[in-house]
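Design a sequence for this backbone.
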């Protein structure tokens, strides 16, 4: 069954109030962005009816689009006001990048899997998210070309924070990243205190692994 556009608007409102506001995300700009971005267009056609459900969905190549609440929470931790340059590691479907594009000046997003990068780039362009640039590269190295950033959001889990990411942030910047084992991790928010980067533990999460130079190499746990 195909749901009509109006039904998707209703489903998005239910998603925001029932999953995201209810769990404590208060940033109105984030909530508004999540009301606006058509999440169902970022999943496969056969998944559309589940696009607003309270869980992640497969997007192919063993990758997933994150649960809506996790997108809302991670985005709100960045506390974006509209003038920032933001880096996302792990473009995947492009959904998180679309949310960021409504909240910041400029978004760079890096993806390692070529077909995901090109699909996301085409969709973001088609939907008019013109301040997003998709880069096919190893995001565990960050994206030096457009550094420094006000905020970096990593949507794959790392064994530890990749050193290049902290180097590519302004001292006032923020890094949000899931850190831990390959099964479960802790979502961490890194900021500088007295000129030293410090993590704050937010909550337990389960992300797909970050690959690349500073990611998981293969079968480590
Ligand atoms: N933010 C995405 C979900 C990402 S899933 C969304 O909104 O849909 C994690 C993504 O990280 C996957 O697409 C995976 O291919 C990518 N990834 C894993 N390691 C990476 C690396 N080293 N550099 C760039 N992308 C990477």
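Sequence:
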């Amino acid at each position: 069954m195909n749901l009509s556009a109006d039904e998707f608007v209703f489903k998005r409102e239910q998603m925001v109030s029932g999953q995201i506001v209810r769990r404590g995300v208060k940033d109105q700009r984030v909530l508004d962005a999540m009301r606006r971005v058509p999440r169902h267009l970022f999943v496969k056609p056969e998944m559309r009816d589940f696009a607003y459900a309270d869980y992640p969905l497969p997007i192919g190549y063993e990758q997933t689009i994150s649960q809506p609440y996790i997108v809302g929470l991670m985005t709100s931790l960045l506390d974006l006001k509209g003038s920032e340059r933001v880096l996302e590691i792990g473009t995947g479907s492009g959904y998180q990048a679309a949310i960021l594009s409504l909240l910041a000046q400029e978004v760079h997003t890096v993806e390692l899997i070529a077909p995901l990068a090109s699909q996301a780039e085409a969709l973001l362009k088609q939907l008019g998210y013109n301040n997003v640039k998709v880069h096919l590269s190893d995001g565990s190295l960050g994206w030096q070309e457009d550094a420094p950033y006000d905020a970096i959001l990593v949507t794959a889990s790392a064994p530890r924070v990749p050193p290049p990411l902290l180097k590519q942030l302004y001292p006032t910047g923020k890094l949000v990243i899931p850190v831990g084992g390959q099964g479960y991790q802790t979502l961490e928010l890194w900021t500088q205190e007295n000129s030293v980067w410090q993590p704050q533990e937010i909550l337990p999460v389960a992300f797909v692994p970050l690959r690349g130079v500073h990611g998981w190499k293969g079968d480590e746990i």
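The two ends are 41 Å apart (CA to CA).
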